[in-house]
Request: fold
Amino acid sequence: MPAKGKHRRTKTGPISRGVLAAGTGGAVLALPLIGATGAHAAEQSAPAAKSAAQSAPAPAAKSASKTYSVVSGDYLAKIAAEKKVKGGWQKLYQDNRDVVGENPSLILPGMKLTLGAKTSGSAQTAPSTSAPSAAKKAAPAEKTAAPAEDTAAKTEDTAAEAEDTAAKTADSGASQGDSSGWSTPVENPNVTTQYRASGASWSSGYHTGSDFQAASGTSVRAIGQGTVVSAGWSGSYGNEIVIQHEDGMYSQYAHLSSLEVSAGQAVTGGQQIGLSGTTGNSTGPHLHFEVRTGPSYGSDVDPIAYLRSHGVSI
Reply:
């Protein structure tokens, strides 16, 4: 006979709030209702998070580059400053070395330069879902670039016509030269430092050429018909052009801000070959002009006397 007595009711633990279901595979613990609700909410939020991630703007779009067309008078430092290129002209040159070539100082009108950082490695690994969006954004930019290129081409054509007119005028002007095709290196020439002027400013102890007054961007012209021997950076001379003439003599034009000819190119007297500036070892904008018996430094002769011997009034 069972003993009489009171038995305490066993307290239910947290696990008993669930439902214990028996199945053929064993006991299965069903989650409490409140827990199941939370899990369901988490499952619903997952697609929303995925959708938000897909709709987020791709980081590659921020690094999209722009294109700039070089015009007469441009040089890398000037473009980098005006377009606020991070990293200065060195970064601009690095991004466009395949276009500019080995000489960063020799850029020609019409060159297309990339402004801003190129596509980085992180941009290349961006999800493929961002590609269509980037392509759509790039399309209007390409359409806009086309009219700009057309305008630049028309401007270059107009400049070419102006140069032809200037060359014809040069032949008839007294200060420009005579019918032989010889010309002064700049229009309305004003010599500011004479040939053979002495001073500690020059490594040879004297001035090896004649300096002409010329604000930055002033047209610099070949004094006579010849062939360009070199056009590029030349140390203390900055951007420099050297031309060999038909009589075997050479003319040199230094401290230029822009070069518009290249080595091996044939030029005529009065043709614009570049723009004046203050590159290299220079105290301010001007044109340093020399006449030489050879292409290199140290073979100088009096440049003014040489021009006058060819009928140029100066």
Remarks:
- The radius of gyration is 37 Å.
- The domain at 64-155 is CATH 3.10.350.10 (Membrane-bound Lytic Murein Transglycosylase D; Chain A).
- Helices lie at 33-55, 76-82, 88-95, 97-100, 121-124, 131-172, 303-309.
